[in-house]
């Protein structure tokens, strides 16, 4: 399982007052799988034009997006209804609800192979020395495109400015928040898990920031207000282990 979301089945009149909880996830095969209360096994939905990348619940509906951006909703009978046509381009798709809208974040990766000089890559901080390092098949995020769902036309519309919103992308979750609420200054960016900088600098926390207006990626440490959101950890995190 790559990600798990919970929604409630209210398809039948008798279930409206007592909706049945349903789990939706992405099976290792790339297909969607559901588990209803009372089931003994997961049910795999066979339809899969392309492997699915992400799932979420939007306005009470279970939504899934595949690797080419085709977005569907899962019906009570496990049928897949089209929500939006495909968006070709990136390598990994994320679904994020932001201020009442559903966004699609398209992550572009680039694979770095072989021996390289550290100073040859402008996106990796270095001290100016000719430090030599070896990378074998390491994938790194190089760009993000963001789209907003147009429900009536069933298509994704590109977004170039998120305003005050900040999108957070993890391996098993994605969410958004207001920059002013977080007290981090400007929004219009994507904060995401990124091991590229941590592999070359032990002080990095393995996260980076992509600003839509600059179309560039920087380690989280460049933005102290964002870094404080993750390190040091809040007091309640330490209390969990005590």
How would you sum up this structure in a few lines?
This protein has three helices and 17 strands.
**Rg from Cα:** 20 Å
Order of helices and strands: EEEEEEEEEEEEEEHEEEHH
How many DSSP-defined strands?
17
Structural category is: mainly beta
What is the 3D shape?
A: globular
Structural commentary:
This protein has 242 residues and is mainly beta. The protein has helices at residues 179-182, 224-227, 235-240; strands at 4-9, 20-26, 32-36, 43-45, 52-58, 61-66, 71-74, 80-84, 92-98, 101-117, 132-150, 155-159, 165-169, 174-178, 189-193, 207-211, 216-219. It is built from three helices and 17 strands. The strands form four sheets. The chain has a five-stranded mixed β-sheet with strand order 14-13-15-16-17. It is globular and about 50 Å long. The two termini are 30 Å apart. Mean pLDDT is 82; it is low at 114-135. It comes from Cicer arietinum.
Topology:
Elements: E1 4-9, E2 20-26, E3 32-36, E4 43-45, E5 52-58, E6 61-66, E7 71-74, E8 80-84, E9 92-98, E10 101-117, E11 132-150, E12 155-159, E13 165-169, E14 174-178, H1 179-182, E15 189-193, E16 207-211, E17 216-219, H2 224-227, H3 235-240
Parallel strand pairs: 13-15
Antiparallel strand pairs: 1-2, 2-3, 3-4, 5-6, 6-7, 7-8, 9-10, 10-11, 11-12, 13-14, 15-16, 16-17
Quickly list its features.
mainly beta; four-stranded antiparallel sheet; about 240 residues; F-box protein SKIP23 isoform X1; 17 strands; about 50% strand; 3 helices; about 5% helix
């Amino acid at each position: 399982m790559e990600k798990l979301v919970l929604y409630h089945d209210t398809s039948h009149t008798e279930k409206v007052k007592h909706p049945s909880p349903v789990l939706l996830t992405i099976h290792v095969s790339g297909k969607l799988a559901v588990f209803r209360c009372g089931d003994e096994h997961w049910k795999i939905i066979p339809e899969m034009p392309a492997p699915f990348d992400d799932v979420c619940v939007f306005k009470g509906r279970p939504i899934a997006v595949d690797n080419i951006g085709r977005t569907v909703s899962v019906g009570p009978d496990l049928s897949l209804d089209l929500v939006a046509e495909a968006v070709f381009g990136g390598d990994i798709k994320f679904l994020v609800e932001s201020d009442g809208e559903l966004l699609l974040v398209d992550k572009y990766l680039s694979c770095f192979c072989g021996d390289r000089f550290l100073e040859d890559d402008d996106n990796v901080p270095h001290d100016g020395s000719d430090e030599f390092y070896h990378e074998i098949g390491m994938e790194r995020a190089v760009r993000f495109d963001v789209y907003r769902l147009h429900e009536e036309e069933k298509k994704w519309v590109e977004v170039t400015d998120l305003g005050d919103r900040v999108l957070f992308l993890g391996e098993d979750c994605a969410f958004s928040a207001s920059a002013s609420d977080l007290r981090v200054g400007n929004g219009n960016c994507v904060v995401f898990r990124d091991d590229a900088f941590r592999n070359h600098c032990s002080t990095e926390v393995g996260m980076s920031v992509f600003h839509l207006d600059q179309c560039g990626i920087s380690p989280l440490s460049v933005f102290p207000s964002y870094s404080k959101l993750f390190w040091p950890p809040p007091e309640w995190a330490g209390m969990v282990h005590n």
